[in-house]
Amino acid sequence: MINFRNINIYSLLRDIGYKMWIVIMVGILGVMGTYTYISETYKPVYSCSAIYVVTPRQSTGYVYTNRKSAERVVTSFQQLLYTDIMASRVREELHNPDYELNTRVEIIEETNLMKMTVTSSDPVTSFKVINIIMNNYDKLSEYLASDAVFDELKEPTVATVPDNILMPQNTSIRNGFISAFLALIVITVLSLFRNTIKNEDAVEDMLGANLIGSIFHEKKNKTLKSKLGNKVKNLLITSPIISQNFVESINYIRTKIEYEKNNNDGKNVFLVTSACQNEGKSTTALNIVLALAREGKSVIFIDADLRNPSIHSMLQLEKEKIEDITSLLRGECSLEDCLYYEDKLRFSMIMPSKPHQSTHEYTSSGAMKALIKECSKMADYVIIDTPPMQLVSDTEVMLNYADFAIIVIRQDYSFQPDIMNCIKNIETSDCKLMGCILNDIKNIKNTKNKYIENKIEKMLSGKAVSEDAKQ
Fold first, then answer.
1. DSSP letters spanning 306-341
2. Percent of the chain topping pLDDT 70
3. What is the pLDDT of residues 369-420, one digit of tens each?
4. Is there a contact between 249 and 437 (Cβ–Cβ < 8 Å)?
5. Comparing C-alpha atoms, which of 54, 52, 99, 107 is closest to residue 78?
6. Are 380 and 298 in contact, with CB atoms under 8 Å apart?
């Protein structure tokens, strides 16, 4: 079923835009297919007509009498045409035993004129059949109820143009538009039924988890010059070109983390993870650290994504100055040697200097647990960036070392079952699921300023009430 609270117009329009080539291709195939079908199945039909004056052999001269007599004669003539006698005579003279006689006889209204039309796939055959019928009239007149004379008023001619002129263009174009429209409907339905998280309401509805905060889409390079030079590599709140909206989003999340820590004495280790890669968990974790450090908090940031470390590159640190975390876990150096600190950053880091393949032995070791425990005593906050839970089992092991877990969910990216699997693993561990952060949100109507400001006001007012109650 479609979760109407999970519908996002931007995601829908993006899907349609990305897959518009499919709509166009289906439309083109619809035009080509229809044109080919009409051309291959087209069978021209030619008609040959003649008009005759019908009068009794002994005419009274009265128009009314002649007209009534003509009507009776035409009725009998029609019955004659539909019998096997006339059909057999036509087949015999055409030398075509399979020919199907297709004729139409009608009286022209308010006259004693009879119009006879013969239709077939060949114009010459139609011409021949109409002459065969009239030439055999005298021989077959005994079958008519009354005697009559047929005087030719308009002689039959061989048709040069078929009745059903081949004009597939209009039909093909119409069917092409219909095909494209149906493809558009299919894309729309698939987008609406795609089981991903598309907006804030869906976090609670589809995951049953608390929404910690929302981070709206932020362009890395906002000018053409910066895009060409690719100047901005990462979205960090320390960058001077980052919008205030983005900073407010991070500050709101920071406020919630502070609130959670203050309500749980002695618990200050926060693990940040995601279900899949490229959801922005490392950027989010680093921005949380930067926001806490700005508030004067003592923070240790541990990059535990040993297979794909990114913090040193995001901060553009020199690898030569970094003591790899694996050296500490193997007991080759002390914690003080492994801690990386810069005055401009105002927080400490422990991280790998290069990617590692065999990581489970490090994350599951007692040394890792002891490291996190020691860091929790040294700082106000310990933030751990861990690998995506759907890729490796490292994060599941480290859940038992952390106090709180935060899942970063990129809008319309990971599927709900994958995220639910992460939540289930957290709930079965010793770690408390603090909630989820919906990242990289794109909406048609941007109301993020008001949303974030209202959330921060509610959080701060709730915090003040809690502190007053304690006093």
1. -SS--HHHHTT--GGGPPPHHHHHTTSS-HHHH-EE
2. 87
3. 999 999 999 999 999 999 999 888 889 999 999 999 999 999 999 999 999 9
4. no
5. 107
6. yes
The answer to whether 121 and 135 are in contact (CB under 8 A) is no
Give the Cα separation of 208 and 416 in Å (integer): 11
For residue 457, the SS3 value is: helix
- Three-class DSSP category at 201: helix
38: exposed, middle or buried (C-beta count within 10 Å: 0-12, 13-18, 19+)? middle
The stretches of 224-363 forming alpha helices (DSSP H) are 224-229, 244-262, 281-294, 311-314, 325-329, 335-338, 360-363
Residue 346 to residue 380: CA distance in whole angstroms: 13
Rounded Cα distance between 441 and 453, Å, is 17
Provide the residue count of the chain. 471
Asked if residue 198 has pLDDT above 80, the reply is yes
Beta strand pairing call for 269-274 and 381-385: parallel
Residue with tokens 């038992």: 400
* Residues contacting 8, CB < 8 A, separation 6+: 198, 199, 411, 412, 443
The tokens 């680093």 sit on which residue?
286
SS (H, E, C) 421-447: HHHHHHHCCCCEEEEEEEEEECCCCCC
The sign of the torsion formed by the CA atoms of 409, 415, 420, 423 equals negative
Whole-structure pTM value: 0.74
CA atoms in the 13 A half-sphere facing the CB of 378: 17
How does DSSP classify residue 345? T
**Token digits of residue 92:** 């015999």
Give the whole-angstrom CA distance, residue 63 versus residue 110. Answer: 10
Separation CA 454–CA 2 (nearest Å): 29
